[in-house]
Every structure is written in structure tokens, then in C-alpha cells.
Amino acid sequence: MQGLLSLFQKVRLIFFALLLALSLSFNASGGEPLMSMAQRFYYGYGTPQNFQKAFSLYLKAAEQGDVDAMFIVGGMYMKGQGTVVNTAEAFRWLYNAAINGRSSKESERILAEFFVTGKNVPQNYEEALHWYELAANGGDFEAQSELGYLYFTGKVGEKDYKKAAHWFELAARNDYPLAQYNMGILWYTGNGVDTVDMIKAYAWFSLAAANGYGSGVVAENFLKTVLSDKELKDAQEASMEIYREIKSLNQGAVTN
Q1: Angle at 173 between CA 170 and CA 179, to 5 degrees
Q2: Measuring CA to CA, how many Å separate 121 from each of 96, 117, 118?
Q3: Mind listing the domains of the chain with CATH numbers?
Q4: Do 150 and 132 form a contact (C-beta atoms < 8 A)?
Q5: Cα–Cα distance between 70 and 57 in angstroms, integer?
Q6: With the C-alpha atoms ordered 20, 22, 24, 27, is the resulting torsion angle positive or negative?
Q7: Which of 9, 15, 75, 209 is the most buried (most CB within 10 A)?
Q8: What is the C-alpha separation between 204 and 152, in angstroms, rounded?
Q9: H helices of the chain, where?
Q10: Which residues contact 78 (CB under 8 A, 6 or more apart)?
């Protein structure tokens, strides 16, 4: 009897240990209970919206290794949502999420910006290049523009105007005014585009100006004093053609 009781007690202990292990594993790997509760508080599903409670639960899940929670916590620290703004913690959690396979083009760009500025992390242009490339290839137009800047200035080695032009144009055709202005500069100087072309320079300056970029307005007005009437007409037509291409491209992206 004593042996049977001892066996029963052992089985019961093993059973409870298994339940505990499964519970801990569930929280640590999937994080579903914590994530589910956090989401309810974050979005206000069936309960009053409460970012502070959501943050606390997301942080707990992140500390248990949930990469989605790491990503969310990094974003909440970045925005000061449910907690105070803390860029050091934002970097830590976004970086940990990213190296574990959870990132977005925006978070990749943010990581790159940390490495460029040297804020909360040693300045490292090679790391910045890595994260900008990921974000840029994912379609982030700000990252595309910043990648162009790194190549244009030679922050990652020798200056490479061809690569700068490639990335500036991608961003410019995503209707990003800073990149449109920079494309104007490239055509005005001939860097990265093989030749000087005042018509194309004006076209891009004009688009940047139309998007409210102040330096684009200045450059557009300057070229109006340089170009002949025919050249100005051609330049304005070129600007309209690029504008139509951009609108068509963006409408196609929305449709898809």
C-alpha cells in the first residue's frame, strides 16, 4: 500500500510539473495568454482601453522571449505609449526583435538612424547601411533617400554617385520631396547621371517645390532665370510627365 501511495504521489507530482512546464512554455514561446490580454487592453476589446496595462503585459511577454512583444514594446517606448519615451529601451527591444526575425521597414529605418546618429549606441555607418538597405528594399522611401545620402557623401567608403542616384530616384518616384530635390542636384551637377541636364534638373526641382520643399522652390526659381523660353516649356512638360508617372505608380501600389 505504501508503495502504491508513493507511486500515486509521484505520478501526481509529475502531472503537476508537466502542467506547470506546459504553462511556462506556452507563455515563454507563444506568449498567447499575455499577448491576448495585452491586445485587449491596447485596442479596448471587451474592456476600457488602457495603454499602461497593455504595455506592462507586452513587456512581460517580451521579457519571456516573445519576439512580437519585443517589437511592440520597442515601438511603445519610441512613442511613449503606455510608458515614458525611452529611446535607449526602444533601441534595445527593436534591435532584439529584428535580429530574431521580427521587424518592419519602419523599425529597420529607425535602427539605422540610431547607428547614424550614435544615439544610445556607438555610431556605426556599416550597421546603418545594413538596416537602411533592408528598409529601402522593403519600400521605405525615407530609407531609400538616406541610403542615397550615405553613398553620395561617402559615409560608407568611397563616394558612389551611381548608387546615390539609384536610391534617390527610387525615393523621388515615391514622391519624397527631399529625394526629388536631390535628383535635381544630380542632374544639375551631372553626378551619378553621366551628364548635366538642366531640363531634368528643373523637372525634379519643380516637383520638390510642388511638394512644399523650400530649397526646391529656390532652385526652381533660379533655373527659370537661366533657361530659355523653349527650355522652360520643355522642363515644365518633363516635370508633368514625371508627376503623372508618380501618380500612376502610387495608384497602382494602392490597388495592389
Answers
A1: 70
A2: 14, 9, 5
A3: 33-86 (1.25.40.10)
A4: yes
A5: 11
A6: negative
A7: 209
A8: 18
A9: 2-25, 32-43, 51-63, 67-79, 87-99, 105-117, 125-137, 141-153, 161-172, 177-189, 198-210, 214-226, 229-255
A10: 85, 87, 90, 94, 110
Q: 501511495: which residue's cell?
A: 5
Cβ neighbours around 34 below 10 Å, total: 23
Residue with cell 494602392: 254
Residue identified by cell 491576448 is 36
pLDDT, tens digit (0-9, with 9 covering 90-100), for 155-188: 988 999 999 999 999 999 999 999 999 999 999 9
Terminal-to-terminal C-alpha distance of the chain = 72
For every residue of 109-162, DSSP letters joined together read HHHHHHHHHTSSS---HHHHHHHHHHHHHTT-HHHHHHHHHHHHHTTTSS--HH
> Please, which residues have CB within 8 angstroms of residue 7's CB and are 6 or more apart in sequence?
none
Measure Cα distances from 69 to 54, 114, 155, 205 in Å: 11, 21, 34, 43
Stated length of the chain: 256
pLDDT tens sequence across 181-230 = 999 999 999 999 989 999 999 999 999 999 999 999 999 999 999 999 99
- The candidate with the shortest Cα–Cα distance to 134, out of 124, 144, 125, 148, is 144
